[in-house]
From TrEMBL:
The keyword ATP-binding applies. Residues 2-27 form the 2-thiouridine synthetase TtuA-like N-terminal LIM domain. PANTHER family: ATPASES OF THE PP SUPERFAMILY-RELATED, TRNA-5-METHYLURIDINE(54) 2-SULFURTRANSFERASE. Keywords: 4Fe-4S, ATP-binding, Iron, Iron-sulfur, Magnesium, Metal-binding, Nucleotide-binding, Transferase, Zinc. GO terms for biological process: tRNA wobble position uridine thiolation. It comes from the Bacteria. Zn(2+) 2 binds at C276, C279, C288, C291. Residues 49-222 form the tRNA(Ile)-lysidine/2-thiocytidine synthase N-terminal domain. This is Phosphoadenosine phosphosulfate reductase. CDD domains: TtuA-like (cd01993). It comes from Caldicellulosiruptor owensensis (strain ATCC 700167 / DSM 13100 / OL). GO terms for cellular component: cytosolic tRNA wobble base thiouridylase complex. GO terms for molecular function: 4 iron, 4 sulfur cluster binding; ATP binding; metal ion binding; transferase activity; tRNA binding. Zn(2+) 1 binds at C3, C6, C22, C25.
Length: 303
């Protein structure tokens, strides 16, 4: 296996590109992909303040590392969601990386700061913990970015995540979600901060290689609630397709972005947005779900 670029000894073979790379040329390829994605979708530039959402897993750690290394103005943001040991371990990994590399980091703890418990809320609301957790995270990413004057919120979503989400949304024609699925989601309200996914063309395996080569510490465990999640089943199915026909995931995403998404764009742009009567953040209802969660948690402790 020879490196396609320098003809040295290849250490990683990327089937969908029919190409092997040595360590240095892999890093060159990885860097190029990230730069290309940022430029192609006009995600941000060196003048922008970017809030990077960090979970402590390989994808977000890779994103934080590469953006900082490339000289972007990045601040990490970690939310402790109160998921037992998983949250404690990931917070440690994230804090130690920030400290070792002299990087800015914002840490929020939903229990200590807002009195929120995703397990109690999911019982009270009869919603899955993942869905409660997702609403809280989306709210806080945007609020902290908006309050802190950031121009974009960047997440470590990779090609496998994006293809699995797309498959799930296509299977039930979730028009609202399809409208929002994009590597860059421009703001449609002055209080909504732009969302970007610079790693959307890189796979989980490529992100793993990147963190291993750069000796970046990361949390190997997945969130315990991911077990049995539909997204894992979609990833399995897509992996089987990819095995038979390399490049399937990338084609699925790029052709959707080029030809499919425009049919749903109106759905995104036409949602009626309001400002929450309690916190002032953007919502589609009178009181946003985060404020309802806080209210519900307080009522429950008072009773
Ligand atoms: Fe939110 Fe797993 S990270 S439930
Ligand atoms: Zn609110």
């Amino acid at each position: 296996m020879k490196c396609v670029r320098c003809k040295g000894k290849g250490i990683i073979y990327l089937k969908r590109h029919n190409a092997a790379f040595c360590q240095d040329c892999f890093l060159y390829y990885y860097n190029n992909q990230v730069k290309k994605n940022i430029k192609k979708h006009r995600m941000f530039d060196k003048k922008d303040k970017i809030l990077v959402v960090i979970s402590g897993g390989k994808d977000s750690m890779a994103l934080w590392h590469i953006l900082a290394k490339e000289g972007y103005n990045v601040t990490g943001m970690y939310i402790n969601l109160g998921i037992g040991q998983y949250s404690d371990k990931s917070q440690q990994v994230v804090e130690s990386f920030a400290q070792k590399n002299g990087l800015e980091l914002i840490v929020k703890d939903i229990k200590k700061e807002y009195g929120l418990d995703i397990y109690k809320l999911s019982k009270l609301l009869k919603r899955s913990t993942c869905s409660v957790c997702g609403s809280i995270k989306r709210y806080l990413f945007n609020k902290i970015a908006y309050d802190g004057g950031f121009s974009a919120v960047a997440t470590g979503h990779n090609l496998d995540d994006e293809a699995a989400t797309l498959l799930g949304n296509v299977l039930s024609w979730e028009e609202g979600y399809l409208a929002r699925q994009s590597p860059v989601l421009e703001s449609i309200h002055p209080k909504l901060v732009k969302k970007v996914k610079p790693l959307y063309t890189l796979t989980e395996r490529e992100n793993l290689f990147y963190v291993l080569i750069n000796k970046i510490e990361f949390l190997h465990d997945e969130c315990p609630h991911a077990v049995g999640a539909r997204s894992i089943m979609y990833k399995d199915v897509l992996n089987r397709l990819e095995e038979e026909s390399p490049g399937t995931k990338q084609r699925f995403i790029t052709s959707f972005l080029e030809k499919g998404r425009k049919h749903f764009q109106d759905v995104y742009e036409k949602v009626e947005l309001k400002e929450c009567s309690i916190c002032g953040q953007v919502t589609t209802t009178d009181v946003c779900s985060f404020c309802r969660f806080v209210r519900l948690s307080n009522q429950n402790t008072e009773n």
